[in-house]
# Entry
Amino acid sequence: MKKTSTRLADGRELIYYDLRDDVVRDAVDRRPLERTVTTSEVRRDPLLGDSVAIASHRQGRTYHPPADECPLCPSQGERLSEIPDSSYDVAVFENRFPSLAGDSGRCEVVCFTSDHNASFGDLTEEQAGLVLEAWTDRTSELSHLPSVQQVFCFENRGAEIGVTLGHPHGQIYAYPFTTPRTALMLRSVAAHKEATGGENLFDAVVLEQELAGERVVLEGEHWVAFVPYSAHWPYEVHLYPKRRVPDLLGLDEAARTEFPKVYLELLRRFDRIFDGPGGEREGAGEPPTPYIAAWHQAPFGALEEFEGVSRDDFALHLELFTIRRTSGKLKFLAGSESGMNVFINDIRPEAAAQRLREVASS
# Structure
């Protein structure tokens, strides 16, 4: 992998990640951009104890542009984009309309490929491996910023999720606090550790899934993917390395090498969930399966509030889920979910796992 860091016209950082070492990245951003001004602010809710990012400047962000005006495609001639070069393998840049900025953290965009019409599942194993290297490198770099306590790499895919740019891409949020979801996990880990005399909760959950078997979707030598016992979403899969590590930096070479094959197979199965008996997609003109893919990593800040727990007690894992519950129907977060955070799942986790095994690549 070759890494090249440069600056866009308004001062934002752009990083190219290339498969070949001989690639030269010296294209200049020729757009007449003024420096980005953000109004990002983090406010703490005194009742719930969580934080909300106030980012009113995002109202003017790019919204569903036509394909020939995509800001994530490479620049061509006088059609200038966020990527000054005429091609790229993987590119990462500071978001022009960030939810978090300055003392409130940082937001980055990760472009998985220059092919506008592709998706992550269309990548080769070599390309997917390069994205993993980019995620890992950005996690390392962002963790050293004084305002950052947790790094979150994720992909939103599909208009149903709220994606406003069709080009295959993800994002990285570098939060100035430990996120509420991670804090809940750490409290559960601390309670389980105390109750069992030191057993790790993540290890116990993964082992239970492997022994039960009925919710395991696929398993490699270094990774295991399963539908959780209490899945919140219609189709939800958690992917764990078999050797517990706190973050992407902790993965060994064997796990890194196997990851692309396992992850690409998962994504391709997600696109076949709603196919008919002969491979026909149910519902005329139904788009590919919308999903969110989210990496959960240990915070880099102090964990004193989680008594007896260290970063090494956390387990890196990826959660992949779709909001589509059946052909043509979405799972909406209505009263119980949005008002009380109590999820109601329309599909038994065991049935979801069975379906994801049925649509395996032949």
Remarks:
- The mean pLDDT is 93.
- The two ends are 31 Å apart (CA to CA).
- The chain is about 25% helix and 20% strand.
- The first strand starts at residue 2 and ends at 7.
